[in-house]
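Figure 3 (text version): structure tokens given as input.
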């Protein structure tokens, strides 16, 4: 089982989300793959600090995400087998295609981190972060700081590919450092030359952080510049946004990030929209509560009761968007101060309501 085991069992962990609406759909298989791993759909869960631990990743997988990545961790701490870092990297045995995402700019640390991720932790692939806008990371020449140095990107990717082999290495990048330095095409080509198996782009600059607008024109430019599969993203608020980005940029897959934190159903809706042109009806209130409950139960398993409940407050704000307007505020009000499992249970009204 994953690390972070809790001391007492959570009785209402159901083995899986109710699948009555989410049985596999036909078609939608893509030609894209990450190395030897075929990607069954064209939508994936983008890495997010604090959010994409195994509980959300597992839900996303069950609702049809093709793959996901851990949140970014520093290669140095992976190489040192830092206990906190290893906890962040915990996976659930039922997870399939998850990349361990690392940042760094030191060849020795990156190589050792890749060996730990693949050889010791069993990750099926390694994702190299060239996107992080945090000042400390950028000023170390790592994350988004590497966008100014395509030649270094090629060298580091080559080192990672050699260390991770036979597992593939993917790259997640931004458009460039700022609007006067859009280097996405050069960096993507460099990553491909270094042996990257897939390139994902968040088309904002480092300077933009998470503000302003994503420039989806850069997704199209990168797609044209590389032969490996390409994932576009940025401001994907709905399945319609994602299907439009696939059509307009030609990218192979789309990453959902913020819109998926309280809406794992988005992967199923996106796939349905792409396959049939229509989306299934939204989940009913009982299902939203059941999935939220299971999400919290898994978080308790991962983080322990107190930290999981603190995170559940944030999640409640995200999940409330899935409820009819007249029910959403009450749902959030009931959950916004929970500290214990018993309080979560009480707020959700006991066992599953139908
Ligand atoms: C809270 C938060 C944490 C994030 N953490 C990471 C991360 O650890 N690694 C990464 O590559 N991107 C990270 N991102 C960026 C997202 O993966 C994604 O590229 C970005 O949010 C754009 O997608 P969106 O506009 O659909 O949210 C993070 C984003 C948010 C909002």
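Below: residues designed for each position.
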């Amino acid at each position: 089982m994953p690390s972070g085991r809790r001391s007492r069992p959570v009785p209402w962990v159901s083995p899986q989300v109710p699948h009555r609406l989410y049985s596999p759909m036909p078609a939608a298989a893509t030609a894209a793959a990450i190395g030897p791993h075929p990607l069954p759909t064209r939508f994936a869960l983008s890495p997010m600090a604090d959010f994409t631990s195994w509980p959300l990743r597992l839900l996303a997988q069950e609702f049809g995400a093709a793959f996901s990545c851990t949140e970014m961790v520093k290669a140095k701490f992976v190489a040192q087998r830092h206990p906190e870092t290893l906890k962040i990297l915990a996976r659930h045995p039922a997870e399939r295609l998850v990349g361990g995402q690392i940042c760094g700019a030191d060849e020795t640390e990156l190589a050792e981190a890749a060996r730990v991720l693949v050889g010791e932790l069993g990750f099926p692939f390694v994702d190299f972060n060239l996107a992080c806008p945090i000042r400390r990371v950028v000023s170390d020449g790592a994350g988004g700081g590497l966008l100014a140095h395509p030649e270094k990107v090629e060298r580091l990717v080559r080192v990672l590919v050699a260390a991770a082999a036979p597992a593939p290495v993917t790259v997640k990048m931004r458009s460039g450092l700022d609007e006067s330095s859009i280097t996405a095409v050069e960096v993507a080509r460099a990553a491909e030359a270094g042996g990257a198996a897939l390139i994902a782009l968040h088309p904002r600059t480092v300077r933009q952080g998470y503000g302003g607008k994503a420039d989806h024109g850069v997704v199209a430019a990168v797609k044209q510049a590389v032969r490996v599969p390409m994932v576009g993203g940025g401001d994907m608020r709905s399945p319609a946004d994602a299907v439009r980005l696939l059509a307009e940029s030609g990218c192979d897959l789309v990453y959902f990030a913020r819109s998926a934190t309280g809406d794992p159903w988005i992967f199923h809706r996106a796939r349905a929209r792409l396959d049939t042109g229509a989306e299934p009806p939204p989940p009913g209130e009982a299902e939203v509560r059941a999935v939220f409950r299971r999400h919290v139960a898994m978080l308790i398993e991962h983080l322990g009761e107190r930290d999981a409940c603190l995170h559940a407050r944030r999640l409640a704000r995200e999940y409330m968007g899935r409820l009819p307007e007249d029910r959403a505020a009450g749902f959030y009000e009931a959950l916004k101060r929970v500290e214990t499992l018993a309080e979560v249970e009480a707020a959700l009204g006991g066992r599953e309501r139908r």
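The longest helix spans residues 285-303.
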